[in-house]
Amino acid sequence: MRMTDASSHGPHSSGDRSSFGFRDVDAREKVKMVRGVFDSVASNYDVMNDLMSVGVHRIWKDIAAAKLNPRPGETILDVAGGTGDMARRYSKMARAAQERRGGDDANVIVLDYNAEMILAGVHKGGEPEMSWSVGDAMNLPLPDASVDAYSISFGIRNVAHIDKALAEARRVLKPGGRFLCLEFSRPTTTPIRKVYDAWSFHAIPRIGGWVAKDRDSYQYLVESIRRFPDQQTFKGMIEDAGFRRVSVTNLSGGIAAIHHGWAI
User: How far apart are alpha carbons 14 and 27 in whole angstroms?
Assistant: First the structure.
C-alpha cells in the first residue's frame, strides 16, 4: 500500500467567499468546515451514500466508470476519492482490459483532502493498482500533463472554488486526457424534484442523526447539493476551464449527472 500526504498544499487567499450549504463563508473557513464534516462522517460514509441515494449511487458509479473507460498502463487520478469506491472500479476495469489485450499495469491514485476518509478507504482495502494520497483538489501535488484521466465523484461541490479545481484538472491532464465528474444535480422534471426534495431535506438529515449521530453534517451535504450549479451551468464552467467536447449524461432523471470532457 502506498500513501502520501500533500495536504499542506493550497491555502486560499483571505477575503474569498464560498458557499457552505446555504451560508456564504470565508473560503478558508469552508475548507476547515468541510474537513470537519468528513472527519465526522468518514466511518459511515459508504452507508450514508446508500441511504442518501437509496442504493442507486452504486449503479451511477458503474455507469461513470464505464464512461471513463480505464485502460492498461494509464495513470488515473481520482480526486475526492475518499473511501476508494471509484478507484476500485477503475482498477478492476483496467486489469480486465489488460488481461484481454495486454499492456502495463494501470496506476490509480486516490486523492482526498481528508485524511480520515483516506484511512477509511485503506481500512476497506484496495487493489494492486491503487495508491493513496492526502491532497488538495485546488492545488494538486502532481506535475503538469502527468495523468491520462481525471475523475471526481460527489466531491467537487465541497471545494471552496470550483473554477480552481477545474483548472487544476486541466493542468494535470495530458493532451487528449479525459475528465469525468459524477455529482448530484438538478432533477429534470417537477415530480422527481418534489419527491427528491422531500426525501433529501426531511429524511436524509434525520437518518444522518440516527446512523451517524450527526444530523448537521448531513444537513450540510443536502444544502450543498442545492447550491451546486445546474447541469448546463456546470458544463459551461468545464468548457471555460479549457475542456472540449463536454457532454452531460443525466442519471435517474437528473438527480445525478455525469459531465465528461477532453483535454484537447
Answer: 7
CA distance 254 to 264: 27
Rounded Cα–Cα distance for residues 95 and 30 (Å): 38
Residue 93 near residue 125 (C-beta atoms within 8 A)? no
Rg (CA), the chain: 17
Q: Position 134: which residue type? A: V
**110: helix, strand or coil:** strand
237 within some domain = yes
Confidence of residue 29 (pLDDT cuts 50, 70, 90): low
Size of the chain in residues = 264
Residue-wise pLDDT tens digits, 82-126 = 889 999 999 999 999 999 999 999 999 999 998 988 998 999 998
User: Which residues are CB-neighbours of 12 under 8 A, at least 6 positions away?
Assistant: 27, 28, 31, 138, 160, 161
The conformation of residue 158, written as its DSSP 8-state character, comes to G
Q: Are 150 and 182 in contact (CB under 8 A)?
A: no
Scored b (16 or more CB within 10 A) or e, 213-236 reads ebeebbbbbbbbbeebbebeebbe
User: CATH number, domain at 91?
Assistant: 3.40.50.150
Query: Shortest CA distance to 253 belongs to which of 188, 190, 200?
Result: 188
pLDDT computed for residue 12 by the predictor: 40
Phi, psi angles (nearest 5°) of residue 254: 90, 5
**Does the residue 213 lie in any domain?**
no
